[in-house]
Amino acid sequence: MSKAGTTADSKESDKFKDLIGPMDPKLDREVREILTTARVGLLLKASFFGNLATRLTLTNADEWCPTAATDGRKFYYNSRFIKMLKPKEVEFLFGHEVLHCVYDHFGRRGDRDPQLWNIADDYCVNGDLKKHGVGEFITSVPCLYDKKYEGLSAEEVYDILYENAEKIDISSLIDQMIDEHLDGEGDGEGSGKDEKEGKGRPTLSAEERQQIKDEIKEAMISAAAADADGAGKLPAGVKRILQELTEPKMDWRELLRMQLESTIKSDYTWMRTSRKGWDMDAVMPGMKLDPMIDIALFIDSSGSMEDSMLKDILSETAGIMESFPAYRIHVATFDTQVYNPVQYDSENLEDITEYELKGGGGTDFTCVFDYLKREEIEPKRLVVFTDGYPYGSWGDENYADTVWILHGTTSIVPPWGQYAYYEEEKVAA
């Protein structure tokens, strides 16, 4: 059980439970006007958010949703709750739902404690919206916000909350959440395919969830293009995602080769040539190599690492290095600690494909950097092969030039370093 699970039993907030009930057609018409006006307001003042909000179908959910929610296609709302908010607060609410979609908070939870993850999501989203003036921060009802979390990812906020879980009143924080979090598996009778207004909580299959993620990516690109002048005012997390979606993706093999070869070639020293037979004092590149060319390759063993992936990355690294006479490759696996460190050079390089993967717990990049410092290894390039977000920090960005190769997802953008996404090489038939 997670640390969060030891502090509070899993329970839903009952703060707004009295709002749940049959739809009132007269009230609903009034609320729809409020919602429509709020979306227009966002279009005028925060076009990126307004465009994304407009694509969400307004769907009454009085019978199951006490506040608001989204599955990426629909904006579910409780009409009685919406009436409690000021018009500009409704704009903020739309922005809140939009950012949950943009940041893919539904798909990034992994095996984290659901309640603590949802709280972290809200801190992250609300901080970004408040900082960038999207709508008006909600004060009509309790709303999660702490300035110290501004600019942090949901993963980073979660880690802070997790470490302090025993001191946290989770029930109180749940009461400050302004929306329902639809993680794809609901407990109602509806579905993402045939859900009707006023019926049960929607559910989505894995295939439907992926389709929605693809739709959101396309919508983000369109929304950013429509608001090119306002792109600089977007939260940093949104800008990183847009950059990833719009910039050409580099093949991981190309990136790895380019980074490793440039590292070694840069260590050729420039030496003054012998003046015998020359009429000028020429300076030419010499062939003296730095005897301490260290390449470090660390492989995250916490995720679904397949043998084929491991051999692929190892053989690709070896193929690059064997073209050079002087090098050392430090290979190790890690989760929350480092396992099985092995050093390879020209004498034993052929053994690298037999390297054994060990470990299998969580992911903590900090342990990689701690190990390198402790062993006094200063690699010219650090290559990290991983399946995603760490539970802690991404590590020390100032210690080594780092190349991230990510597998299993394309939604993650490292906060620093070079990166590419792993794909198996396609063999032509």
The ordered string of helix (H) and strand (E) elements is HHEEEHHHHHHHHEEEHEEHEEE
Shape: elongated
- Return residue spans where pLDDT drops below 50 for at least 5 consecutive residues: 4-12, 185-198, 268-289
- What is the overall number of helices? 12
Percent of residues in beta strands: 5-15%
Helical amount: 25-40%
Computed Rg:
26 Å
Chain-averaged pLDDT: 82
Q: Total domains, how many?
A: 2
Description:
Residues 4-12, 185-198 and 268-289 have low confidence and may be disordered. The longest helix has 21 residues, at 25-45. The protein has twelve helices and eleven strands. The two termini are 48 Å apart. Helix 1 packs across helix 4 (87-102). By secondary structure, it is an alpha/beta fold. The chain has two domains: 4-246, no CATH class; 252-421, Rossmann fold. It has helices at 25-45, 47-54, 79-82, 87-102, 114-131, 154-163, 170-174, 206-226, 236-246, 252-265, 307-321, 366-374, and strands at residues 57-60, 68-70, 74-77, 270-272, 283-285, 294-300, 328-334, 338-344, 381-386, 402-406, 418-421.
Summarize the structure.
With 429 residues, the chain is α/β, with parallel strands linked by helices.
Topology:
Elements: H1 25-45, H2 47-54, E1 57-60, E2 68-70, E3 74-77, H3 79-82, H4 87-102, H5 114-131, H6 154-163, H7 170-174, H8 206-226, H9 236-246, H10 252-265, E4 270-272, E5 283-285, E6 294-300, H11 307-321, E7 328-334, E8 338-344, H12 366-374, E9 381-386, E10 402-406, E11 418-421
Parallel strand pairs: 1-3, 6-7, 6-9, 9-10, 10-11
Antiparallel strand pairs: 2-3, 4-5, 7-8
Helix pairs in contact: 1-2, 1-4, 2-4, 2-8, 4-5, 5-6, 10-11
